[in-house]
Amino acid sequence: MTQKEFMERAGVVPTSEEFDYIHAVYMNTSMDKDEFCKDFKKHGGSSVLRDVHARAVNFELQDKQKQALIEEVAEFLIGKACAYEDTDFYKQAVKLVGQKKVTRMKLEMDLPLWKEDKEYIKENLK
């Protein structure tokens, strides 16, 4: 929803900073534009809504950071698995990020594909 659409529907003229917040809240709802604007007119100034939104944004940021760390650990495990031909490291990487991601990482790292990787590729190219 654009800022103009919001102003027309809600009858509120937010600053661009306020609209960024409004738009972020809107994008995380399953409401249509009219329903959202009507509800936002009633509850938009709610400190509870702002607090919940801030917590949701913080949670998303933490989730992205944790996912990046998990992928970094998986990449480390894949490297060690190939260096030492150790299937335990490999299996742990698969548990962390899945076979698809492990196979893709090995290709990106220019590492040799193992039997498991080749079987995964064959199975998914049908």
Automatic annotation (TrEMBL):
<protein>
    <submittedName>
        <fullName>Uncharacterized protein</fullName>
    </submittedName>
</protein>
